Fold these 2 entries.
Entry 1:
Amino acid sequence: MADAPPTEEGWFAVHDFREIDWEQWRNAPERRRDAALDEVTTFLSDAEDIGEGETAIFTVAGHEADILILHLRPTLDEVERLGRAFERTAFGSFTARTNSFVSVTEIGGYTSPEYFEDPEEVDAGLRRYLETKKRPSIPEDGYVTFYPMAKRRDPEYNWFETPMEERAEMMAEHGETGKSYAGTVTQVVTSAFGLDDWEWGVTLFATDAVALKDIVYEMRFDEATAKYGEFGSFFVGRRFPVDDLDAFMAA
Amino acid sequence: MADAPPTEEGWFAVHDFREIDWEQWRNAPERRRDAALDEVTTFLSDAEDIGEGETAIFTVAGHEADILILHLRPTLDEVERLGRAFERTAFGSFTARTNSFVSVTEIGGYTSPEYFEDPEEVDAGLRRYLETKKRPSIPEDGYVTFYPMAKRRDPEYNWFETPMEERAEMMAEHGETGKSYAGTVTQVVTSAFGLDDWEWGVTLFATDAVALKDIVYEMRFDEATAKYGEFGSFFVGRRFPVDDLDAFMAA
Amino acid sequence: MADAPPTEEGWFAVHDFREIDWEQWRNAPERRRDAALDEVTTFLSDAEDIGEGETAIFTVAGHEADILILHLRPTLDEVERLGRAFERTAFGSFTARTNSFVSVTEIGGYTSPEYFEDPEEVDAGLRRYLETKKRPSIPEDGYVTFYPMAKRRDPEYNWFETPMEERAEMMAEHGETGKSYAGTVTQVVTSAFGLDDWEWGVTLFATDAVALKDIVYEMRFDEATAKYGEFGSFFVGRRFPVDDLDAFMAA
Amino acid sequence: MADAPPTEEGWFAVHDFREIDWEQWRNAPERRRDAALDEVTTFLSDAEDIGEGETAIFTVAGHEADILILHLRPTLDEVERLGRAFERTAFGSFTARTNSFVSVTEIGGYTSPEYFEDPEEVDAGLRRYLETKKRPSIPEDGYVTFYPMAKRRDPEYNWFETPMEERAEMMAEHGETGKSYAGTVTQVVTSAFGLDDWEWGVTLFATDAVALKDIVYEMRFDEATAKYGEFGSFFVGRRFPVDDLDAFMAA
Amino acid sequence: MADAPPTEEGWFAVHDFREIDWEQWRNAPERRRDAALDEVTTFLSDAEDIGEGETAIFTVAGHEADILILHLRPTLDEVERLGRAFERTAFGSFTARTNSFVSVTEIGGYTSPEYFEDPEEVDAGLRRYLETKKRPSIPEDGYVTFYPMAKRRDPEYNWFETPMEERAEMMAEHGETGKSYAGTVTQVVTSAFGLDDWEWGVTLFATDAVALKDIVYEMRFDEATAKYGEFGSFFVGRRFPVDDLDAFMAA
């Protein structure tokens, strides 16, 4: 039996993908649209200003969704409630949920075994870094890519039967690729075991859209990915300020 | 030929996943909504108070469903009828079935071979434990995770061609992982051979949502899972009292 | 090249799965519902009383369908026409087709090679038994399970490259498992090569729903299934008399 | 590198599968239905009588479609235009496209290498036979089966890495099976590389529906199929004269 | 670890597939249709005449879409905005998005390693050729085929574990096949890592529809494809001038 690495969880997350019924929107009376925008803008602003957690809204390119609303909160109840509350705004009735992902942020044992051995001993810098994994902040501006993933369990490529040491080595190599994008791409990894259909979710942020393509391409050659990675759908878009929602809907 | 282990069946189960048409609900006259809530609350309360069996309602996070209604009853007829009866309440017309799972609780031969060899000889404690597998009670409060699963039948990982003894050893290891969550996570395993598209359903209950993630992650490293487990969609949510349905719909 | 075993075909079959639009039904005027029930009950009764062939209606548990209508007839034209005729009744307009399976009953060469070698020589008992495979009668009451299946053609598990003798041995073992359920479970096997997406359909009947689970579970360990069987969706339900359709719709 | 065999293309084909909205049809005023039938019958008759090419209409059994309209024409533009033109008739508005297949007839190099080496040298009989592959005529009456297929490219079963000679041998064996159905089953093979999701489409015609089942079953044991064949959905139905469309819609 | 080849990106692309609601179109008042055509024709003409980038509209054969609108622009924001803007025209409300592909043009390191080693040294001809890969122009007329693809990562066929040199050799062989279609087929390759569900998109242009079939068939035998290529859906159609949209809608 291979060992499960230790983990430490932070905030729960829901990625809420929605398409807009543009025809219904166009046909609605201006008064109703204005009221809907007022209500939902207040709702999202309040959610962004919440004490603990993050909320952000993004455009999404392509036909699978028009917008992504991402909520991060300390409890599953809160993210579940926020998704439902958005759905129930007047604006929500102009949208339909096309996809979602329920997960929880984590510090994985591969990256920082020393933290799990003796958390008191790790220095303040690493501690702050690990803290951002549990309670990440979403960049104010820029592009986003989200995709769910899992590790293979095939006879020749079975991640969960691979000795801990080999997995750690592969994750270290993978981490090196990530580090080469430090300052360019920020990543938030969330775990979805028992919560959603894939094992992890990856959310990448960058101010250069090509960098999102580059990092995903380059990582595809890392052994951890080339041999063991399975991927779901990819979604790409851009964050915008809540106050620009009216401009987005008018564009 | 490998041997099929003995099993003993208990209650039939239907996991009934539904999404709510919030727009239709919002647009319905208050009187109609109140009447619908009265009727369905009575329906569910009566179902919960039934002599033999269990009924419970849960929120579901994410876009695949809003609520899960779980019925456990001595016969397939009863669970089939309860699903249809819910569908036909006025409240049901504000919902659409997005998924379901038809199965039957069982005591599996791997866990307690002595029970199948000589049921009279097993002690009262084990007997009570096995009884809860056939007629489980659903915790009053807390989180739930449901997922369907099957065992692989590939050339190198073929559960159904593996000798009984090896399967029993793997299930024992798997059981050890489960026991380490005793008091934290309760599980109900139901069999769906000949009843639904997967071989088994697993329903987990916990008061700590992270524990649901932890147990599923840790078990992924058990040989029985790492090599032989195939999984369908995962659904996570939380039980709520039937009397809170109006609050849920108003939230 | 492996040999295709001889077969002899009987009736064509269509398994017609439908869901009911309960809301539309509830909202329809009583007069229209009564007329629809009268018409469809007559249609189904007439179909049941047909000279050659069988027609039966079943409830279906779970979200994939509410009812199954099974037609068996000497020609493909007749089963195609019956499906269309049901669709076109007033009752049919309250339903939507969610699935179907087009196939033809057969006597397979594995089970009774002597019949194919010299049909005149087989005794009357076997002849009657084989006759029921071509022109099966549907039990008046009890549960039903339907599932489509195919045989694998993978490098290590390739049914169609396996020598005839080995296939016959596996089918004989498989037949033994079936015989141990004689009197408990009745099975109808239909071939769908060139007619539908899977290779065969299996329809099982039993007065005990657990027996349906048991036989499918036990057979999963037969070599013919463990190594070569691929399965589609499983549907479970119960036959009811055509005259109870009004009670079903009122329940 | 294995060699691509030579091919010679003939007519383009579109298989246009449609379901009928029977409720909408039933509810339409008789005048509108009559006008729709007149228009579409004329459209299809004209299409059938076209100088070069073929058009035919078929019933389809099962839930995936009600009718199939097959167009064969010298150019892709014509088949694309015919599909769109049908869609745009008044009758078309009572139908919805559920599936389609865009492909082109071909003479494959496996069957007649001598033709590709020196077309002048082949005798008139073979020339006429090959001509029917490029410009097939659709039998006036009888059953039809359509299915799309591809050849596997797996490590052990890789058609496109198999030497030309071995492929030719397998295709010859496969052709022998086909020849044993000469006079019973007619086949039209069309290529869909770069045109649709599968590599080839196979359309079989027979006056005996069981023969369609038999040939597909028997061919499953041919090495070319047992090891290399991958199949999509199968559709079965029956051709009917355009003038019977009103009877079909009234039935 | 295998090396990721260098790449250089050009324009972003969105392939926007849409089906037309012909019934809604037919039922709309002529004035509304005329206004919708005027607006969208202006929109598309303006988009075609844009300073940097390309926009083109194509028919699509088969049931998966009626039209394809292809936008190429220097930024992801522009292609995302163009897709949304089309959706929001009055004409857009007669269409529904059935598919899309978000990607970015690239010069791949396999084809021109010398360019990546010393871009200053490559001659003007190669430079112009590479420039067309980053900023391709869409042929005025002719057929188009689009399909998404990925490279396999299976134990025996793992592109991303194959040494750079072997990949380069296979890509060179693949390029030779492409060159034999020079003047007949033009191809645009776009990368979708981190942007969409597949790894690359291939858009082929030709004035002869059979050439599209031929090149895809012949390339299937190239080692890079036979062993490593995985393909999504194929779409085939034909470009038409924006000014012919009214004829297309009237046809």
Note: The longest strand of chain D covers residues 7-20.
Entry 2:
Amino acid sequence: MLSSRIGILGGGQLGLMLLQAAVDWNLDIHVLDPDAEAPCRKIAPHFTQGSLQDFDTVYNFGKDLDVITIEIEKVNVEALEALEKEGKKVYPQPSVIRQIQDKRIQKQFYAEKQLPTAEFILTENREDVSNYISFLPAFHKLGKDGYDGRGVQRLTSADDLDKAFDKPGLLEKAVPFEKELAVIVARNAKGEMETFPTVEMVFHPEHNLVEYLFAPAEISEEVNAKAQEIARKTAESFQIVGLLAVELFLTPEGEVLINEVAPRPHNSGHHTIRANATSQYEQHWRAILNLPLGSTHAYGPSAMVNLLGEDGYEGPAVYEGMEKLLATPEVFPFLYWKALTKPFRKMGHITIMDADIASLKAKADFVKNNIKVISHKTK
Amino acid sequence: MLSSRIGILGGGQLGLMLLQAAVDWNLDIHVLDPDAEAPCRKIAPHFTQGSLQDFDTVYNFGKDLDVITIEIEKVNVEALEALEKEGKKVYPQPSVIRQIQDKRIQKQFYAEKQLPTAEFILTENREDVSNYISFLPAFHKLGKDGYDGRGVQRLTSADDLDKAFDKPGLLEKAVPFEKELAVIVARNAKGEMETFPTVEMVFHPEHNLVEYLFAPAEISEEVNAKAQEIARKTAESFQIVGLLAVELFLTPEGEVLINEVAPRPHNSGHHTIRANATSQYEQHWRAILNLPLGSTHAYGPSAMVNLLGEDGYEGPAVYEGMEKLLATPEVFPFLYWKALTKPFRKMGHITIMDADIASLKAKADFVKNNIKVISHKTK
């Protein structure tokens, strides 16, 4: 399987980290991305510039390859289905991408498979939403094309109705939660599964913002077992081949609910490059090449901070504070080969390790306060 | 420093691992290698095919770069000196490469700096060697151009004189030794130094062959302190900027002697990619970019097995047993992007980790016995 010709749809940072992991096995990788300056451009063994959403482009890209995978869900699934019919191995399977691309189908799938998730109502358009005022507060989610926080609106009362999407979507009950957790599962074509340890998103004590990711999550053994079990059951229900990142809510009552899933490497697994025996990226290759899955054993507690473009700056990226970070033991910045910064653009992440938890958290705070992505051209 | 234009002379496996480590920091790397199919070819951001030993080629390669480094010592040092004079940062410094390229100068340097090494006599040609029969048994080493075991002959008595080199070289007393150790030191331009934990080469109990590398070395605290101290002192004596791999002999009397050194990443540090907080490759970048050096803390004991082309096979490489290896927890094969195998060619290495030492050694044996690089075209 190591000599397969492999394609990745998408050449962003997840693709970059997949390429880095593939160096160990000499994987012959072809990357397709619409952006000539995509993060993967300079180090991909083969790079094709082209649309991920155009049937012909995706089909032609894949037709001389053996295995095709994705690092972003917004791709032309019809082309992937055509390639699958011709005997190409397409992982995750196009049918799974289709189910997950549409949040309406995704939610119905959980209901059908009795996987725990917040209550929801399907809505057809904005007017339809007005029929469910008593269901608020709720999140109105666009069925398709939501991405990275876009396509979600919180509706508290009838006054917010103008914020509702005028397209097919769903209302999801706003559940109070104590923690946001995530579990990444890998599953190969033989049906073997491995999960990574449960992680948690740590929120700022005052602002309602994710401050950093922390692994392993500080939760009871019981909650952890529940989270791991739900993640495995979800991956198995989808029969996915590849990675499934399962984002979860932990309610104050100790209930664990699925928030949403991603059928690919995920932001909540970047730290595994440094902290775990097998990274999520290597595990993705193992899963889609139908190889034995690797040990997900963690060598110690870790944290991860996203490095976002500072508000107010747009232009060639300058990383202020890198030297301070590099001078701190076991602090590892990873930059995404993006020449230009924009406010809140994901420019990199920083992994932090420390055997001592208090010191780990102190280092995470230090990191957050001491690095900034700016530009000498202000916006 | 992260935005420097960086050049590597040599595009072999060490260059490949340097490139992989450079992904984290978006380093803009240019690679020069005479072989159009060099391991680095496919993933280097920039690749130039050309001789490493031709003045003009090396000079022209370096003249538009900011920082130039090597992954092999056999390069045109005059061109590097010219580049250094023009203000390029050339690390390791050309003067250090010159000292190390010639084993005669290297040995005299140890004597002058009072660094412990086996007794030696400089010889001019084969006839000259015959003057020192009473000094045998000894190793006759070629001054220049010895590499990877070539350029060394063991002379036991006058009968072996025809094996001596008829060029400038040196006779080195054959010291009995208990273990071969190695310490990799990093030093940046500020003079900061960090060493990696001492490792040992484990020999086959019957054949006199290195079986695998083991980290940390199983030696007394006293011997370890001596090895670390000698390595630091050697790096400081050379005033090297970059990595210095110091290979050492441990004698039955507990004496630690320098065998030889390499001013670059080294075979004895491959395991640091998986086992240590900072790998030797990342540490090399930190050192030559004058950044703070990283923690060399090991997350646990590890072993490393070289993957050599099986004797009797020459042609397109086939890796027999990869799946068995991948099914063993914490066994990580790394292949060198070499399409063709040859007897004893370095085709890759395998890193093995295990918190339990007995189990680590058992896994190293399992690995050695279960992977083979062959070709379906026999020699």
Note: Chain B touches chain A through 36 residues (CB under 8 Å).
